[in-house]
Design goal:
CATH architecture: 4-Layer Sandwich
CATH class: Alpha Beta
CATH topology: Purple Acid Phosphatase, chain A, domain 2
Structural class: alpha/beta
Bound molecules: zinc ion
Radius of gyration: 17 Å
Number of strands: 12
Shape: globular
Order of helices and strands: EHEHEHHHEEHEEEEEEEHH
Strand content: 15-25%
């Protein structure tokens, strides 16, 4: 099975379209989203509609939960908080219901998917290191799992010959998951990358070959920044897109 995994779209329609085009070109059979479809960007309804149309498996991110009123925005920065309020006002009841119904974790035939962690997904903690990732690697229901949330691609591997040791990989263009006992992969962010590369990040997973590739797709950043400014969202949310921060 060929999976296309994307996440942290954050209502960035141009970036989402660019990634879906890549999926079509690569012959992806099933789309997975690691959450945060909405929040920050100015096209939340359009992004929800596109993922629904494609029959994607989608889990709930913290911005999705905040936008439906399920999660307190106490710990959000002021820009994120403003975006949550804007998003809530610009989503229809049907979209809110769809976001509310999303699961925190989804298990598919060849992999599982969550937003932050697998051991306590409702807390939306960040996995930034092998120490952060170990409790998730211990509780994962599949050998290969995908998360998002940090907006920075990352791969944590436990190899068959040394399954108690977790190694961290940032150079992750091709990941040989067939060689690993367990693999936890952060696929980066489609709509607001924070690793100094402004291009949309996503992953391809071929379950037969046992390979994952993390790739980038360029998109029309200026167009999306203009959409954010026109919506009256905080200027910084438009400016940061071209910086990849
Ligand atoms: Zn996010």
């Amino acid at each position: 099975m060929k999976y296309g995994i994307l996440g942290d779209v954050h209502a960035n329609l141009s970036a989402l379209r660019a990634v879906l085009e890549r999926f079509d070109r690569e012959g992806v059979e099933h789309i997975i989203s690691v959450g945060d479809v909405v929040g920050y960007g100015a096209a939340p309804a359009e992004c929800v509609a596109l993922l629904r149309e494609r029959g994607a498996t989608v889990v709930k991110g913290n911005h999705d939960a905040a936008s439906t009123g399920e999660l307190e925005v106490l710990y959000f920065n002021p820009y994120a908080r403003a975006a949550v309020a804007w998003t809530r006002a610009n989503l229809g009841g049907d979209e809110i219901d769809w976001l509310k119904a999303l699961p925190l974790v989804a298990e598919l035939e060849h992999c599982c998917v969550g937003h932050g962690t697998f051991h306590r997904p409702e807390l939306f903690d960040y996995i930034l290191s092998s120490t952060d990732g170990d409790p998730s690697l211990d509780t994962m229901e599949r050998a290969v799992c995908f998360v998002g949330h940090t907006h920075v691609p990352l791969a944590l591997l436990r190899l068959h010959e040394d399954p108690l040791r977790t190694s961290t990989h940032f150079d992750h263009e091709e990941i040989d998951v067939g060689q690993a006992h367990r693999t936890l992969i952060n696929v980066g962010s489609v709509g607001q990358p924070r690793d100094d590369d402004p291009r949309a990040a996503y992953a391809l997973f071929d379950s037969e070959l046992g390979r994952v590739w993390i790739q980038r797709a360029a998109y029309d950043i200026e167009r999306e920044a203009a959409r954010i400014r026109a919506a009256g969202l905080p200027e910084v949310l438009a400016d940061r897109l071209s910086l990849g921060v």
